[in-house]
Structures are given as C-alpha cells and as structure tokens.
Amino acid sequence: MSRLRLRPGSPGRAGLDPEELRRLAAGVRESCAGGRPWCAGAAVVAGRGPVVAVEETSGWAVRYGAYDERTGLGVPLPPSRMVPVRTGTLFDLAGLTQLFTAVAVLQQAERGTLDLDGPVADRVPEFAAAGKAGITVRQLLAHTAGLRPGLPLHRARGRAAQLAMVWREPPLSAPGRVRRHSELGALVAQELLERVTGSPLDACLRQGVTRPLGMAATSFGPVPYTQAAATEDQRRPWSPLDRGMLRGTVHDENAHALGGVAGHAGLFSTAADLAVLCRALLGGGAYGTARILAPESVDALLAPPGLGLAVDRPAFMGELAGRGAAGLTGFTGPSLVLDRATDTFLVLLANTVHPRRRPVDHGPRAAAATRLARAVRKAGRPGGGH
User: Fold this and answer.
1) Which of 167, 202, 237 is the last residue of a domain?
2) pLDDT per position as a tens digit, 40-89
C-alpha cells in the first residue's frame, strides 16, 4: 500500500479496465439527467493505489429555485442562473462527518487519553442516566450502543437542553447486541472529544485530520455560498424547519440547531479532498509525510463491525461488498467506499435532496461501485487494462 500522494493517471497505470471506468462515469452522468434525476449534480473520483483514474463532474450544483408541492417537481431556474458542478464544488457531507469524528476519537485513544473499551460515562458522567452506564466508546463508534437513530434536538433551546434529551434517553436494546445506526452516538462522541481535549470539534478535526492531510477544502459550514451545491427547499410539512432553499449551510436540522458543528453532520468538502482521506486510510493511516492514525487504528475502523464506517453493506457497495470493503453514505447524497483487498476507492458526492428530500435510493451508488469492482477484475485478465 503506497503512501505516495494521489496523482492523475490512465486506467492502465491504475490497473483498471478503461471500458468499465467509462461506464462508471457515464452512469454518474445519467443519474443527473432527465426530468426526475437521481440527483441534480454530482462529482466522482475513483482510483487504485495512488492513481486517480476517474475525476468528473456532472449536472448542476444549483438547478432549482424552489420545490412545487402541487406538481411534486422542482421549479427550474432560468438556464442563465443554473450553476454547474465543478471540481471545486463543496457538497454537504451530512453523515460522512461521522467518519471524521471517529478518526478524532481513535487519535485520542492512541494518545492514551481515551479507552475505547472503557465506559463513556467515565468521561461524561451524565451519559450514565437511563441505563447507559455500561456503554463503551467502541460501541458508540460501531453503532452497537443500543441507542435510537435520533431525537428532535432542534426542538430544544441551547446545547445544554439538547444534550439533556440525549442523557435522559434509555437505550432501545442491550449494548453490543444490535447494530443500529444512530446519530446520537456521534453526538456523544463529540461531547467526549471536547471534554478530553478542551477544544471544540471543528478545531479537533482541523488539527488532527484536514490540516495534516492538506484537505484545505474541508470544513464545517457555513461555507461560501457561491462554491456550494444547493440542497433542499426546506419547508413544512416535509421538513421540521422552515429555512427555504439551502446552499452553503448545513441541511441536517439537529446539526443546524447545534450551530452547524456536530459529530454526525455539518462538514462540507469536495470529492478530491475525500479521495485524500480514502488514500490515507488505505495507506494504513499515512499520506505523503503525514500520519493521522496508526495502522492498528485503521484496522479498527475498517474491520467488522467497523468504527464510523459500514463494512460489507451491499446496499450501496455493489460488487465491491463482500471482501472487506468499508464505506459510508450521507442523507444529502454523498458516499465513499474503500476496499483494502483491491486498494481501490470511490467517492461520489451528489445533492440528491435538491430540491426536496425523498426516499433513499442506493442504485447509482451501487452501480458505480460495481463498475469499479469489475474494472479491477477485467484489468487482471489477458488483454485487460494493465
């Protein structure tokens, strides 16, 4: 596994089949097309080893001015006001923020300031309420703490009241028995980090992850309006808040209520920046001269059940699943998959909730991951992409 920095290269140099990569890119373009597209716009970066073999943008960062609930369609902007997706377009990462939070927690575990297998309540005594005294830090990150998926924290005023809702909440199941994705675990991990380090989460991630890796485009919002992809025309009754068309400010209601900086949501980034993080993890925690994690910590992230990542979840990993691939998706449309077995990575950022949220559809994500898996397999055959 190479620690070399990412560089553009041909499919052959990456050890990938060019025809499958062409189909991958074409599928992403098609997902942005038509009257009811999967997403308004997308950016995709894929590669193997240190070679970026696909880097493309499609569709629109801003396509609609509003959502028309009578027709069930977005109201398109005049063509002159539509904004195309560019390589520097910032997307709302939503749940992908949890991976960054998990990395920061593992950094503290490496320094000895946290015990992954120790009770969270040792550091955050309030968390012990309502039967949560035995929940460990590792269970928080692995989503096996038994916590419910979420709470309407945006209904409470102030962070103290919002956290009090979490402290009062009993687990739905015994710790360690059920894997149930919960944004509450990431929020508790944020509180844990901030108490241990004495620094806010945004500072922890900047100092420990984005600055060492040179991820200059990655930060919590608000981000420059003109550089961001729009998300939702957020209005009742389909949204709990009335905020209008969002662009450059966090979509998630709870993260918004927490000031835009939250353990489960709030980061914005580009596909190229996320590819760097994927490369660092595939490189055992190192990228170029920077090291953000020890190899043992990367193993904890990527090995089943995964800490901050889903491992071998076929719904969005397509044919990459099943060999130890790990990845994550976010509600606003972003996803990433990295596969240590083939040393490949795929970042697909999309604004699927523009102009309105809808049921999750992993089809285009799974299709892209499948094309990448086939690109590896076909390149290894006689006459393949090597």
Assistant:
1) 202
2) 999 999 999 999 999 999 999 999 999 999 999 999 999 999 999 999 99
Full residue range of the structural domain in which residue 174 is found: 113-202
CA 273 remoteness from chain centre: 12
How confident is the model over 244-275, as pLDDT tens digits? 999 999 999 999 999 999 999 999 999 999 99
Please tell me whether residues 335 and 235 are part of one structural domain: yes
* Cβ–Cβ < 8 Å for 369, 347: no
84: domain CATH number is 3.40.710.10
Q: How many independent structural domains does the chain possess?
A: 2
Q: How far apart are CA 174 and CA 270, in angstroms?
A: 38
Q: How many residues does the chain have?
A: 386
3-state DSSP call for residue 268? strand
Q: What are the b/e assignments for 27-55, b being 16+ CB within 10 Å? A: bbeebbeeeebbbbbbbbbbbbbbbbbbb
Q: How far apart (Å, rounded) are the C-alpha atoms in residues 229 and 269?
A: 10
